[in-house]
Amino acid sequence: MARRLLAIGECMIELSPSNDGDYSVGYAGDTFNTAWYARQLATSDLLEVSYFSAVGDDEQSCQMVAFMQDAGIDTHMAKITGTNAGLYMILLDSGERSFQYWRSASAARHLAEHLDSMPQVLAGDTVYFSGITMAILPENGRNKLLEKLKDLSRHGAEIIFDPNLRPRLWDDADQMKRWTMKSAALASIVLPSFEDEAAIFGDEGPLKTADRYLEAGTRIAVVKNGAEPVVVKAFDGDKFQFQPEAATDIVDTTAAGDSFNAAFIVDYLERNRLRDAVRAGCALARHVVAHRGALVPVSKLGLIREKAALRA
């Protein structure tokens, strides 16, 4: 029987710039991006990929759910009348991206009120969420979601958290830091990005970031750092760095971290080899940044893991 990987968060309508100056319509969001890549990588009889959120009753929400299902993702969506899917536009400057958002009426902001719509999570299953998942929720929604995740963890589920720090989504930095650390405290694996962590928490280096999350209670901290080495530290004392191969053709860094997370999680869950999982994450992220948009069409993503292992 396949184990379940359940991602929780917000999927949005994406307007992505194309080569001719126009914009194409797609669907993306940090936890959904990870679920989408994970579905391409996962061995279906070992790992089922599910997504939980809330959607509106508008046509675009229906099309978004259909897109997920067509990708092979097991969807569990609360449908909320009178709401709609959020929208964002990608703005690019020399490969670096910024975003313009329209999400105030997004149904996903109410997902914590509908946790009974989540699929069953059993011992041995994995739940993945992010700082953006937490940021879009009201205060009571954050408490409800964390209580649910704590209960799942007590019953044997593994919780994985990407802090994905986005100050503009929070009232202030103190609020963001407080909820980030509360979320990390119940996760067995945390996947932060050092540049963001240094800006918000003032960490002097990636190892300081890893130590802070380990002190909060996580079991493994995997600190991404762009082109610099990934720093990994575990509570049992295991510690190493992995230098990713240089990305020579950076077109769009959208979903670089999300795709890393997907390859890392799938490889780790299926093979339980931490170093190989980091290699797989770096290989997929390098591939993704060479293309436009959050979801990069690839015919055989599984080959990325194999090639990464062969280079080791």
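Second entry:
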Amino acid sequence: MDRSVVADAVKQLRGAGLGAVRELCWRSYLRYGRRLSADPVFEADWDLLVVLDACRADLWAETVSLDGDLPVGTTRLSPGGTSTEWLDAVLGRPAAALSSVGYVTANPYSDDHVDGDALGHLREVWRDAWDDDLGTVPPRPVTDAAVRAGRERDLDRLVVHYMQPHFPSVADDSGDGDDRDDHEDGIALEAFGDRPLSVWEDLRFGRRSRADVWAAYRANLRAVLDDVRLLLSNVDADRAVITADHGNAFGEWGIHGHAAGLALRPLREVPWAATTATDEGGYEPSAAASEADRTAAPDDVADRLESLGYR
């Protein structure tokens, strides 16, 4: 093996050890010594809730300000720093409150964090539209399923949950590392082997710059915004809101990516952009957007979560 490769690995392992101690201290403080009060989501005034997975509020503001055709809106504090915390807080409520609510989702955590029998409509797009090459669900199948739900279902409220801008990026493949997200509720002391590092590990160890990762993050948001625009012109909603389930940390307080139970503003501050939606009838969704079989082997669910970096 090349000596420079060994030296680089040793240097990174040393840095990981010191960084892990600092991260453990900060995580303990953010978990037990600090609190952030969440803003209500389900109780807010909306007919259509578009959820962009892992979208930081400042990423949203920067991107839509440059593009100019979607509202920047305001920000709110999410009830969680992970999708599971958000799902439990927003959709984990009595069946009577959910009977007229539809949920179209690309997030595999719906498998065990959403009660499909309680909802007026559940369409788990990740079950049949998963792209193995991308390691995620691209935006269009979600849009197609949401348009069909909006047109064909008698629902008072519709939640549409895209996976982007959560890594892996569907729009950017720069860098030497794996663009999988690195979601670990603990300290990662990496054993350098054949497994490629995640995008957050690359950032933590200096293998990719913050600017490079941010550019990939922004490109991934832009990739889904085309579909958000398509959705808003093909469903009806007097009160549509674009938001996120959580954000991501870019090294603030020693944290990278996202984790549960942390009172860290970059994880919890999300966009809240109010707008409207009007079905102009100009788009016909794919026939594949019809109902999918809800059965999936536990290994399939685990594999898809691992592709998203939940290992």
